[in-house]
Amino acid sequence: MSAYSESYIGEIIDTQSEIFLQIREQLPGVDEKWFIEAWMKSKIRSRLDKAYPKWANMMPEELIYRFITEECGGEYKRGESWGGFLPSWVGIMYAYYQWSYNIPSKEVIKELPLDLMERAFVPFHQASEQTALIKLREIAIKE
Fold this sequence. Notes:
This protein is mainly α. It has 9 helices and no strands. The longest helix has 21 residues, at 6-26.
């Protein structure tokens, strides 16, 4: 059973993918792994888990700004960039996983930790979202 109506999933997948790419521009020098983990555990992301229209239709730039100001006190950890398309793919897969299995995003980050996602990127990023989702679920259950 999906987390919410299918009418929102495309929007949330696109938004989260964009957020994970745009953090480089909006937050120069941000530690991307820190951001993704903190984002997935945030109150704002939990609102997207339920597809609240106000949040589901907000632009990625606004969501980043609100996350940093409201949940991080205007500060962010500086560190390494993952580079390339990896953060975007993680954003897509985390949103799709959360919706498909109807679990909170804070649980998604536990089931699919960032080191697993980094390892899974090369073999799965060119697969369909559905295929990658099934394979990630199989790996998560084994680990």
